[in-house]
Amino acid sequence: MNKKEIYEHLAKIYLDASSPKNKKGKPKKNFRNLFFIGLVIIFGVSISSFLLHNKNISLGDKVHITSERALVLQPSNIIKINFNFEPATKEIYSLNLNKLNLQGFKALGFSCRKSDFDDKITLKIEFTNTANQTSEYYIGNLKTYKWQDYKIALSDFKNITNWSKMSNLSFIIEDWNTQKKSGVVYIDNIRLLQ
Predict the structure, then answer these.
(1) CB 90 within 8 A of CB 174
(2) Which of 25, 82, 101, 108 is the most exposed, fewest CB within 10 Å of its CB?
(3) What is the pLDDT of residues 87-107, one digit of tens each?
(4) From CA 41, how far away is CA 43, in angstroms rounded?
(5) Other CB atoms closer than 10 Å to residue 123's CB: what's the count?
(6) Same domain, 170 and 83
């Protein structure tokens, strides 16, 4: 073989290899199409199941998602108020709010439960601002063994007129608001809600 024949032979191999007739384009296109259709179906099913099962969404002309913005006040551990009213008359767990401005917030939220099924306990929640204005709210007959979520509107704390510089938030168990003289109250997830 001479150079010309070698050149033509190599050119033919090259052209045959790169010609569109020999490429397997259809299976790749079919695979891409099936993959794309599968993604669309999965995405559609996910969105529709989310919309149909979420209670905070209304299905109308517009989709409205409601959410709760909160400022978490509690340290990472569950608060345990262990009361024994033999020598004392009340037990207090207090959070220092350090002049926190609460004017943009609408409610106090927290979870609570008691340890003794038979005990009837009323929990006192108290806010104090830097001007020494104090206001309280009472929650009677706390739930047992199951965590109960509570939301109290800040407007229910009637004696606070200025929420711009708050000093304390206290959870109080008083001797006259319990049936038994000792027990435990657990508080968790303390937050301010907007």
Answers:
(1) yes
(2) 25
(3) 778 888 999 999 999 998 999
(4) 5
(5) 23
(6) yes
